Structure formats: C-alpha cells, structure tokens
Amino acid sequence: MSTPEDEERLSPLAQRWPRASKFLLSGCAATVAELATFPLDLTKTRLQIQGEAALARLGDGARESAPYRGMVRTALGIVQEEGFLKLWQGVTPAIYRHIVYSGGRMVTYEHLREVVFGKSEDKHYPLWKSVIGGMMAGVVGQFLANPTDLVKVQMQMEGKRKLEGKPLRFRGVHHAFAKILAEGGIRGLWAGWVPNIQRAALVNMGDLTTYDTVKHYLVLNTPLEDNIMTHGLSSLCSGLVASILGTPADVIKSRIMNQPRDKQGRGLLYKSSTDCLTQAVQGEGFMSLYKGFLPSWLRMQSDWITQGLPMRPSPVFSKEESNPDHLP
Length: 328
Description:
Helix content: 55-70%
C-alpha cells in the first residue's frame, strides 16, 4: 500500500509545485512571444525617440536629419541600413525583462488574491478586486524589471547611434549593466521607473476592465459562447484601450531611459518625467505622446498568450442567467 508521501512523490511536477510550474511555463511562453514580436518593440522604441525636441538644447542635429517614417518604413529602414538581424537588437535584456516582470506580476497577484483580498462568500472574485490587484501586481513586476527595461531601450538605440556617427555605449548586455551600475550606482539602474510603473498600472487597468466588459457584452448579447473567439475579440479591444492609456507614459519612459547622461549618471535632457512630458508637448505637439502607438497595440495582442490570461476574470453571467426567467 502506497503512503501519502509516495503518492506525492509520484504525482506530476505541476501538482507538486503548481506555482513553480506555472512560472516556468509562463517564462517559456514569454520567451517565445518575445522573440516573435520583438521587431515590433524595436520599431516602437525607434519611433518614440525619433524627433526629440529636447535634443535642440544640446545642439544635436539628429532631430532635423531624422526622417519621420511610419511603422513599416521604419522597420524596412532598419533592415536596409543596419541589417535584418538588427530587428532583434536588445532581445536578450527584453527576455530577462519579460521573465522578471511576468514572474513578479504573477506571484504578487496570486498573493493579493489569496491572502490580501480573498474571494467573497459565494467564491466569486469581483472585478474591482481583479483590477486593483492587477494594477498593483503590474506596478511591482515593472519596478523589479526596470533595470532590464533600461538596458533594453538603450541597446535598441545603438544601431541608430552608429548611423549618426556616435560611439556605441555598450559591447553587450552584461557590459551595459556593469557600465550603468558604475556610472550611476544602484539608483542608476532604476532611471525612468516612475513613468514605467505608471504605464504598467494604466495598461493593466485598461486591459482588465475592457476585457471583462467586452466579454460580458459578447456572451450576453451575441450568439457567441465563452470560447477562444470571444476571448480573442475581447483581447483585441482590451489591447487597444490599454495602448491608448499606456502609450504616453511609455514614450516618456523610453526618452528618459535613452537620454545622454553625465559622468554621475544624471540625465542631460530631462529633470523628471513631468519635464519630459512638458518638453514633448511644447516642442512636438500633443500627438508626440502617441509615437509608436501602432506597433505597441499590435504587440499588446500577444500578451493574452503569455501573461494576461491568468489574471483576467471570467464572465459573471451566462446566457441562461441573463434570461429573466432564471433570475431569483
């Protein structure tokens, strides 16, 4: 007769260590999704930083010489001017970032859901708890992943610097971390963290609320059932709203992270995220805050495959429950 210890030892790993298994699977899925969609992220970053009005203060001629190209022309320009593989420049810190962010977000969210908020008496997890928990988990995950995000953004711009005749800043990923740490200390690794966590909170809020609202509407008011089609349509809408809310903070984050710095690691263009926002709007117009919007939205649609699905609440009502005859 087998003992409980033997049964536990022979049970699948996913049952013995559910959180560790979920984290491992999430990390693998995140890596695949990152490799597949990274050219969109690179194109987004190039568009966000292109045409910075603040560069005029330093006498940098890059703003005047940079062509204003859309997503497709920017991607083609990178291939033609730098090479096809340069579309994946900075992908290594991006993978690091995705693993840290997804892991920190997932662990924080599950802790909030099970320990802090808890389910209601009917075992239902309300939408408002999902939204608040998702925003808080996104903030924690993004804060932990900020150093990898910083290195990713700076490495994505190395090809542009080379075309402009500027010296390259890094020899590789580990050299980038070491150089930033040496120049700015631990604090330097968290440059741009304020707009970074603001973006994470806004994206999670828009994603969760829109996903739940659209999915409820589709299940209750259309012939569609709660299946992959409904999930895909809801994700499409939630990604759009999340991009609308999060892109301005993303632009500010990218510019602060990429700005030139002095020997002490202090930024030469922007004093704060508010200063960056003001200079962008005054020098380039309000729509400059939405540079890179299209590739950002397209890339957002892959999130439901990797990190968004575990945190999205299920519809509260079924079609039968929406019928008045079934109401109490």
